[in-house]
Amino acid sequence: SQIGMQIADDTEIFDYCRQENRILVTADVKLIKYLASSNAITPSVLIVRGYEFGTRTSPKLLPDIECALTIVNDILVGQDEAVFTLRINRPLRVRLLPLNQDEPAESRNH
Questions:
Q1: Half-sphere exposure (CA, 13 Å, Cβ side) for 75?
Q2: pTM (2 decimals)?
């Protein structure tokens, strides 16, 4: 991590993203449970699923993330924060925060 967050706990990561008005890009789906359990309304999160990581990182990963972030920025203009799920060869899924609302969270594909 360029900002030294590789050993930070979930709370520190979310606090940093909130303070810096950043979108969290991660492959760690347990962070969604943290968002739901804490009734968080920020930050927005882009979950990356189905890609190879490490020494065999998928060549589509970075171009797909760049494309997804363009869509994410367009969606977030004038909107609430959201969780976005990027899966290889699938449309981008959007769920508005907070995740554990009494009524179903808005879910869209882009």
A1: 25
A2: 0.82
Half-sphere exposure of 13 toward its Cβ, with a 13 Å CA cutoff? 20
Q: What is the pLDDT of residues 74-110, one digit of tens each?
A: 888 877 899 999 998 899 999 999 887 654 444 556 6
Residue 84: C-alpha distances to residues 4, 6, 42, 56, 104 (Å) = 24, 22, 13, 24, 16
* Strand order, beta sheet including 82-87: 24-26, 45-49, 82-87, 93-96, 107-109
Count CB neighbours of 87 within 10 A: 14
- How many other CB atoms are found less than 10 A from the CB of residue 29? 11
Residue with tokens 């991590």: 1
